[in-house]
Structure formats: structure tokens, C-alpha cells
Amino acid sequence: MNNLIKEMRTAMGLTQDDLSEKLEVSRQTIISLEKGRYNPSLTLAFKLAKLFNCRIEDIFTPEED
């Protein structure tokens, strides 16, 4: 799954540490999310959407076949 977490985070002026604190996850989780190595739980996806003030599908898109 592709995502725009890094782009949205930097547009808000947040560091990975800032984002991890706001979402109550580790910085390593943020790194893994941004690199596409980890798909978030539904709860975490909703937290991201709320923080970025957008829909979940604005953040995450399926990979092309």
C-alpha cells in the first residue's frame, strides 16, 4: 500500500518524533509506515486521518498491479 504520510507530515512541519508523540506510537512505527513496510491498524489510520484533517483514502492508496 502506498501512502502520503511523509508528505503530509512535512507539510505540517512535523518531525517523525512529533508525529509519533501525537499518535502515541514509536518513531520506528512512523519510519516503517513512511517506507511502506508496515500497514497501520484501522485505529491508527483513523488517527492519521483526523490529525491530517482528511479521509483515510487521501493518505493510503493501493499499489498498482
TrEMBL record:
SMART domains: HTH_XRE
Domain HTH cro/C1-type: 5-59
Domain of life of the organism encoding this protein: Bacteria
Record flagged with keyword DNA-binding: yes
PROSITE patterns assigned to the protein according to its UniProt record, in alphabetical order: HTH_CROC1 (PS50943)
Protein's UniProt keywords contain DNA-binding: yes
Record's keyword terms, sorted: DNA-binding
Protein name: Transcriptional regulator
Organism the protein comes from: Sporosarcina psychrophila (Bacillus psychrophilus)
Lineage, uppermost ranks: Bacteria, Bacillati, Bacillota, Bacilli, Bacillales
